[in-house]
Amino acid sequence: MSRLTYVAHGPYAPPVAARELTAVSADGARLHVEVHGSEGAPAVVLAHGWTCSTAFWAAQIRDLAVDHRVIAYDQRGHGRSPASDACGTDALADDLEAVLAATLAPGEKAVLAGHSMGGMTLMAASARPRFREHAAAVLLCSTGSSRLVAESLVVPMPAGRLRTRLTKSVLGSRAPLGPVTPLARRILKYATLGAGSSPVMVEACARIVHACPRRVRHGWSVVLDVLDLDEGVRQLTVPTAVVVGTADRMTPPVHARSLVAALPNCVGITELAGLGHMTPVEAPELVSSRIRELVTTYAQIKEGA
């Protein structure tokens, strides 16, 4: 689609998929799916966040596809997946199940990684039969299960009703983002990345976020405003690791620590000093290494038994 204007060169340029397919969700929504790497290699499934797309995982795909089968998909309305009137956590879970059914063999295990709304997707699907059939382990990056607007630090003022109201207005804005300008980069960097983020990182994120249609951006912001997936966290019984940036304004570390306290099988938290919300872009090697560790420890147990 013409709205997709990702960076064309460097570590954040989207790799060419080995194959592409369309997964059809429970309500008929069509989801763009990419498969990278070799068939038969250990499987990794990547779920991106709000206003992003498969391009957000470019660095992880390029790294992991050398010796993994990496499956990435566009959430409905994002990237190359058409928009749908249905927005909600059930839709997120339905879509993930559809992707798993379309790409994994019966009983095949995979490590599932989700960033932001992608992590919420994994929480929403945690009790679903197909999730439990296929999930060997989970990585939650820069995400939370509830109170997203109340805990957000995007608006620089003390916590309270006024900050919550202003944050809701900012995140739920229907205004078009327009072209990626120097001012747009500065705003995006403040809201979503750490102060030390390189211009290359900021440019990659800005192009991805600005490509999201404003109707889609607003529709999913309403879902995030009322999100309550605390029960989904308690149902997430597979080994789960958590990653968060200490300077994350969108989903501050308080969310990660709450997840760690509630997860039945948490296998560690990594807090990245000075990093913001876009951890897979800001710390690509570390996020890839966490995924590799989960594959080695949990997804290959039966193979080596």
Q: Helices and strands: which structural class?
A: alpha/beta
Compute the average pLDDT. Answer: 95
Distance between the termini: 46 Å
SSE succession: EEEHEHEHHEHHHHHHEHEHHH
Number of helices: 14
Computed over alpha carbons, the radius of gyration is 18 Å
Proportion of helical residues: 40-55%
Largest sheet: 8 strands, mixed
Strand order of the largest sheet: 1-2-4-3-5-6-7-8
Q: Total strand count, please? A: 8
- Give start-end ranges of low-pLDDT stretches: 301-305
Structural account:
With 305 residues, this protein is α/β, with parallel strands linked by helices. Helix content is 41%, strand content 16%. It contains 14 helices and eight strands. It has helices spanning 58-64, 89-103, 117-125, 129-134, 148-151, 161-171, 182-192, 199-210, 214-225, 230-234, 253-262, 279-282, 284-299, 301-304; strands at 19-24, 30-36, 43-47, 69-73, 110-115, 135-141, 240-245, 266-272. It has an eight-stranded mixed sheet, with helices on both faces. Helix 2 packs across helix 3 and helix 7 packs across helix 8 (199-210). It starts with 18 loop residues before the first strand and ends with a helix. Mean pLDDT is 95; it is low at 301-305.
